Amino acid sequence: MSEVAAASESEVVEAVRHARATRLPFEIVAARSKRNLGRAAGMAGAILDVSGIKGIVAYEPEELIITARPGTPIAEIDAALSEKGQRLGFEPPDWGPLLGAPAGLGTIGGAISADICGPARVRYGAVRDQLLGFRAVNGLGEAFKAGGKVVKNVTGFDIPKLVCGAFGTLCVLTEVTLRVFPQPSRTQILSVPNLAAPDAFALLRKVWSSPLEATGLACSAGAAFIRLEGETEPLAEKVALLKSLVGRNDVQSLDDDGSIFRGIGNGNGFLTSPENLWRAMIPPSQAAAVMGQVGSVLWAGDWAGGLLWLATNEGRRLREIAGAVGGYAVLMRADAQTRASVDVFEKEGPVRAQLTRSVKAAFDPLGLFNPGRMWEGV
Question: Phi and psi at residue 291, in whole multiples of 5°?
Fold first, then answer.
């Protein structure tokens, strides 16, 4: 398979125009830490490496925005933001080790394209809520921009939301602008142990609906974990309120540097599991019911129950259970044979599938970008 490296937007334009002329689809890669996520781009005849399109273009701490090229490592962006006491709100996890790649390689473009969010999503929202604008190259070989560099800039179609989770099937990103958030002076992680799954999920929802503004609400192994942030005095008040919400249950303050929530976001508890790994997105109120029907498997809950990680080879049954409560399940990790034979993403209904094909055709009419990465023909 041939490989082309692009280090600028103009080189991407040239690569796309060549692909149009030769009718040769390509797989878009950068750090390749998430290459085993989603379906394999099996129809691609070449690789477009955009890892050279990197670097922070502009950072305006006072405006809470940062603009970077998609190949920029998340670690580099985190370091720049940390110097100014800021951070990415969607807390992008590092899925490299989970997917067979080294840790610390993930890029901002990969995080946006795969729509990956860590535990702080429960407080600050998803990637799509924080991508203000971008530059990209479409399947016609045209460079274009969408959105802007202010929080409220949308009039008409909110195109930046389309590229979040599109797995590079619509365009080749060349620049992204994100909203960022202040970093708290103090963080307190608390645990409520000895809880059955229904009680843990009920407690997390109770905290979620309270004024505590928790930035982490997760559970696993019979315990609920809650992350609170703030200045010293307000944080102490939050901890006191949490204890009143918990009632008679024991609340333990953990001496933790954030590794618990980092581990949950990264899926560390599933690194050695031999079973297929799934992520189910469901209404938080249905988390306990779903877990009760799925049965005894290795699992963890995040986003107050809105996200379930499950190690199970009963994917079809999981999808039926999740679908019955208005949710869905995505195959996160499996061997190549399983990824080729099982739908990684839920099958779309006829109306939505037609809409997906129409959007794909508008951006990439010849189907050049990551063909088949999400569904066959997309």
Answer: -60, -40
Read off the tokens for 123. Answer: 């407080």
Terminal Cα distance for the chain, rounded: 21
User: Hey, which residues does 33 pair with through a beta bridge?
Assistant: none
Place of tokens 């996200």: 307
Cβ neighbour number for residue 273 with a 10 Å cutoff: 17
Determine how many CB atoms are found less than 10 A away from the CB of residue 63.
Answer: 13
Spatial distance between the Cα atoms of 75 and 205, rounded to a whole number of angstroms: 31
Cα separation of 93 and 116, whole Å?
A: 7
Amino acid at residue number 34: K
Q: Can you give the pTM of this predicted structure?
A: 0.94
Using an 8 Å Cβ cutoff, are 304 and 207 in contact?
yes
pLDDT tens track for 306-337: 999 999 999 999 999 999 999 999 999 998 88
In this structure, the chain runs to a length of: 378
Distance CA 22, CA 3 (A): 14
The answer for residues whose C-beta is within 8 angstroms of residue 104's C-beta and 6 or more apart is: 73, 75, 94, 96
Distance set, CA 193 to CA 156, 214, 221, 239, 348 (Å): 48, 18, 9, 16, 40
